[in-house]
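Worked problem 6 (solution included).
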Amino acid sequence: LVVLSHYLPSNPLLGNYRRKDAQTLGERVQQLTELSLKRPVIRLSGEKFRHFIKTSPRNYSFIVMLTALAPQRQCSICRQANEEFQILANSWRYSSAYSNRIFFGLVDFDEGSDVFNMLQQNSAPVFLHFPEKGKMKRADHHDIQRLGFGAEGLARWIAERTDVHIRVFRPPNYSGTIALVILVALIGALLYMRRNNLDFLY
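Solution. The predicted structure is:
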């Protein structure tokens, strides 16, 4: 985990909250659905966080990762956790069970430090579940220290909190196949170069 210091930059978009919050629930769900179809993990600024998550009513849950991906933050675990989070969100996006019951979002410290401050978080990565109704409970904060941040573990946590079951699909890993092809090619090249010394085989 990386510990972050807070600062609250002035936000020229604050004046837009009233206008955007006036959207109906159906309009917000439609907008979220369109965003998630383009990118399964929706990047949330402070404005978007308030608009989509803090505005009531909601009929959807939101899984949010607080992170710090900028190179100067030197948070290697943040990059690893982000890869797992992306795998999880993509698994849901391309699942036959996909619906607008749940959305995935990401708040980067350098883009939304006010969200960190609002949630009283000073470290990253952090995984939070914002339920569609009621206040957050302790179990809505994923315990990385105890459960890790693997996509499968996150999927089990989400199932417990939302009753939405996500089957994780990992992209195929071709590194082993590529290494084997390279090895065979090297052996073939070596045999070709030494063919004059292999006459005894024929």
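Discussion: Strands lie at 2-3, 41-43, 61-67, 102-108, 123-124, 126-130.
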